[in-house]
Structure to design on (497 residues):
């Protein structure tokens, strides 16, 4: 049996927005297996971004447990959290690169922060950075600044930066939403390569359902902070049970050309 | 009519005794540069620190602490709108306590540095506000602490606007330094009033104006250059 790399157990997360309490995650339990590509879909505001930010504790749970690589990360002190974060890379919709740093320095940053955990010599570090740059297909761009790069290239830097500390999990928060279709496919191929060659578990959020079909082994459908459906793309899309999943399938069919726009 | 104009004392006193005026002018320039550079060094650093603290303690920021933020903001807002010449006399007791005297160039630097700190802090805070939270999140996500995020990510991100902000501050300090003459601090402002205005010799005043313009332009151009260099990459 494959091991769970990430487990959510009865997780709740509330936000206070203008004195109103908003329940972002409601009593959610979910296991993500080591080595899989897991997709999270759902409408905006369903709690997807919050959910993946609980994995690296960018957001903290109000109740419940989040177990990453066998360790409960709820209420961890910073030094332990830092060790956990070494094992979790994240890429973002808007890339969030450090504009004042070159491609090389962007990738070096996590390695500098995690220097103690990685324990690499300067030479080994340099070699690893150059290897990563080559891996994501950006050889020759190491001295460029993010400003000079296209969206797809920026996301490649984001991916290299996320992989710099040799993580076990890669979180992708709508990583292709700001990219054109061709670039989206390229990035998807890269993610698949990362999953297959490096054995990194990938948890991705997307609005592009074709992306899910392309690379996700399992998907979760979220609605109003709850997990409403879980399974392979086929099972969820052939027999959606929840109304949220049914509506997603409808949308998918329309966008893929299996239906028209009835107004 | 024209004759009358020509006979006005303003034009008649144009005969400048350069033998006495040149050393006075050089001294005024050196006094101005001294006051301005010391003020910029002290106020610039203190303002940078205060500005970072202001930004960090804002609600939702790195070290969110609304009570501290409100106190600091109150102090900055209290001092900043006071006309500098009034502030200068208002802090006389503090100046005496710190500098030992309330007269002279060093006595002028004390209130200037305080005022400069306040102005700089606001400019630093405003620049920092513009940093995209996503970049901060990316830094946290790789395990960076809040302090390292501030120094290694946030501040480098705002360097180009910050440098332009400092050029702006520099002009403000030049402005303040012109009032140092009122407490015996000397400088170009004092020179212009003493030898130009009071002796009806506008040429002297204009000379100080030109010198101040040259200094300000040099600094502004330098700042533009550095900022552009940095901006060309982000």
């Amino acid at each position: 049996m494959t091991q769970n790399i990430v487990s959510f157990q009865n997780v709740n997360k509330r936000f206070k927005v203008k004195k109103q309490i908003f329940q972002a995650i409601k009593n959610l339990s979910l296991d993500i297996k080591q080595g899989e590509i897991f997709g999270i879909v759902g409408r905006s505001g369903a709690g997807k971004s919050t959910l993946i930010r609980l994995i690296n504790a960018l957001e903290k749970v109000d109740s419940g447990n989040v177990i990453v690589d066998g360790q409960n990360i709820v209420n961890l002190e910073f030094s332990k959290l830092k060790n956990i974060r070494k094992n979790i890379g994240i890429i973002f919709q808007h890339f969030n690169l450090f504009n004042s740093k070159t491609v090389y320095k962007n990738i070096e940053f996590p390695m500098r922060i995690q220097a103690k955990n990685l324990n690499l010599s300067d030479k080994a570090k340099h070699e690893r950075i150059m290897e990563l740059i080559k891996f994501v297909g950006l050889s020759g761009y190491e001295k460029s600044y993010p400003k000079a790069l296209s969206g797809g290239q920026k996301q490649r830097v984001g991916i290299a930066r996320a992989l710099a500390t040799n993580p076990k999990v890669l979180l992708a928060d709508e990583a292709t939403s700001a990219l054109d279709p061709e670039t989206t496919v390229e990035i998807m191929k890269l993610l698949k390569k990362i999953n297959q060659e490096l054995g990194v578990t990938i948890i991705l959020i997307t609005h592009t359902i074709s992306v899910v079909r392309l690379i996700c082994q399992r998907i979760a459908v979220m609605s109003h902070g709850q997990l409403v459906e879980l399974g392979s793309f086929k099972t969820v899309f052939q027999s959606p049970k929840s109304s949220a999943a049914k509506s997603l399938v409808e949308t998918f069919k329309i966008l893929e050309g299996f239906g028209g726009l009835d107004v | 009519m024209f004759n009358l104009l020509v006979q006005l004392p303003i034009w008649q006193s144009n005969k400048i005794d350069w033998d006495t005026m040149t050393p006075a002018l050089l001294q005024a320039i050196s006094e101005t540069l001294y006051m301005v550079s010391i003020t910029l060094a002290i106020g610039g650093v203190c303002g940078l620190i205060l500005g970072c603290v202001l930004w960090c303690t804002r609600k939702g920021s790195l070290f969110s602490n609304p009570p501290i933020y409100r106190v600091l903001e109150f102090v900055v807002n209290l001092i900043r709108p006071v006309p500098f010449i009034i502030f200068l006399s208002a802090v006389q007791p503090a100046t005496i306590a710190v500098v030992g005297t309330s007269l002279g160039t060093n006595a002028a630097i004390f209130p200037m540095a305080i005022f400069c700190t306040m102005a700089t802090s606001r400019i630093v805070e405003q620049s920092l506000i513009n940093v995209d939270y996503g970049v901060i999140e990316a830094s946290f996500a790789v395990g960076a602490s809040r302090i390292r995020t501030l120094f290694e990510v946030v501040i480098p991100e705002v360097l180009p606007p910050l440098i332009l902000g400092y050029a702006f501050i520099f002009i403000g300090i030049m402005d303040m330094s012109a009032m140092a003459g009122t407490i015996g601090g000397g400088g170009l402002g004092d020179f212009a009033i003493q030898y130009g205005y009071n002796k009806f010799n506008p040429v002297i005043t204009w000379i100080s104006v030109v010198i101040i313009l040259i200094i300000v332009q040099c600094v502004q151009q330098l700042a533009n250059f550095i900022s552009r260099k940095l901006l060309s990459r982000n």
Remarks:
- The CA atoms of residues 52 and 171 of chain A lie 7 Å apart.
- The first strand of chain A starts at residue 4 and ends at 17.
- Chain A has ten helices and ten strands.
- Chain A touches chain B at residues 56, 58, 78, 81-83, 85-86, 88-90, 92, 94, 96-102, 109-110, 112-114, 145-148, 161, 164-165 (CB under 8 Å).
